[in-house]
Amino acid sequence: MRRPLLMAIALLCAVAVCGSDQTSARQTPPPIQHWPIHVDAKRKREMRAYSRRHYGKATYRLRNPKVIVEHYTETSTAQAAYNTFAPDVPDSELHELPGTCAHFLVDKDGTIYQLVSTSLMCRHTVGLNYTAIGIEHVGSSDGEVLDNKAQLDASLALTRWLRCRYGILVKDVIGHNESLSSPYHHERVPRLRNQTHDDFKRASMRRYRRRLRGLACDSSPAGLR
Hints:
The protein is an alpha/beta fold. Helices cover 35% and strands 10% of the residues. A 6-stranded mixed sheet has the order 1-4-3-5-2-6, with helices on both faces.
């Protein structure tokens, strides 16, 4: 095949085929350490069954996430949080399988760990697991996390990268306590339709989103709104 034709095909791919991923490709991730929990075939089957019950679609995959949910762990160490997520056992609150998990964990010193691939669903927020990436922060209160500069800076860098990579709007970066007001909230189980948690209330997230809006995406000086 002649070189001009090869170049033309490459250009066509960049513009027509590969263009949908060009924005994500330009985003620069913060330093992330991989600390995976074991997501085996059994856990995937349980996630598929969970998704069917709660969202009406049998899948364990997370496709085109629209929301990022911020949490805190109520533990004093990252290891304690990891030990909560790693076992595939019924959770202590809702007693369901698979075990709870989050995609990322931000330690007090600003270290970011990835626990689960963003291509997989995690159980971290009732009503939103089908479309949300979960970020946990080691700590016991909103204030503890927001007043820790190293942790907050790392959290904002991670959230910026994820929202820019997936085209998630700043308004759809929410605290767990805001889950019921998300336009993406969907829960088929009646007893759980008003279930949420106290972590990262609206006042705290206003402060967080204010900082996040100042962090533009690489591909757009104004960032995604």
